[in-house]
Design brief:
The protein is an alpha+beta fold and about 325 residues long. It has two domains: about 130 residues, 3-Layer(aba) Sandwich (Rossmann fold); about 150 residues, Tumour Suppressor Smad4. It is about 30% helix and about 25% strand. The protein contains eight helices and 18 strands. It has a six-stranded antiparallel beta sheet. It has a six-stranded antiparallel beta sheet with strand order 13-12-11-8-15-16. It has a four-stranded parallel beta sheet with strand order 2-1-3-4, with helices on both faces.
Length: about 325
Amino acid sequence: MVCVALLSNPKSTGNRQLLPRIRSYCANNDDIFHYEVESVDQIGRAMQTIARVKPVVIVVNGGDGTVQTALTELYQGGYFDGDVPPVAVLPNGKTNLIALDLGIRGDPVKALERIVSIAKSGVQEYVVARELIALSDGEAGSRAVLGMFLGGAGLADSILYCRTKIYPLGLSNGLSHLLTAFAVLISVFLGVRGKYMPPAAQPISISLIREGQLAGRFAVLIVTTLERLLLGAKPGESGKGRMKLMAVEQSAAAMWSMLWSTVLGKFGSRQMEGIHLEQGDVIRIDGESSSVILDGEIFTAKQGGSIVLKSTAPVPFLRLAA
């Protein structure tokens, strides 16, 4: 039995420098089955092959789109008989939110070495359960896409602004994200607009089935199943649903409350005007041009349609640190 099956996408940005080291490590380690794809369209076939070698752990080495497609194929492709092996994600994308949540940081090759060691000695104490977000248009028969972190409303616009206006400048990821945040704050607090600034958020409605509806313009919309919501908030009550939602209205007062409470380490500790923290198992997003970004990939609702989010049953992941 192979200890680790490694799925790599050579075309992801991080692999341009990393992949030669990964290939060298795998060539000298019989415990790893390494499968490389040329595009995300080949990931289904890759999972079919990986299922035949029956690995103890599946490791994904690629950008956000690779991770998302791998999770979708893994849990909807039906390639495995019985339980699906736990999944680990190497830190290789622009954001690495899933890898960070699983305690996988630093040098990806060293992380892979640690994963192989765990797979050989026993994975039971390192396996954790995480729910996924299943995104679809809500129509019968449509295939959902799976992920763990969704940004919508003004946040989705800000991410696209960063990709199209800031990343092309060739700056580091950290500086690019800092400049984007600065531009967003100027646009919200000072109302500055223009082709070089982030666009104003469009009005949307957010329905939490059985929990009510939110409507308006939101500077930040986050839905996640990760263990920790951004800014340390822990919304809602246990039993209300697996997906955590944070929506911040597009107003200077709400944004200031979010920023100041975060600096004080008290974000989410009390109810704040214009800031909504909820939980649910089914969330519906409607708007004239509803777009969201799920684990780095953008999805837009059909004209007059909706974006529907549902939480999946818990699935196993490999966590390296507490």
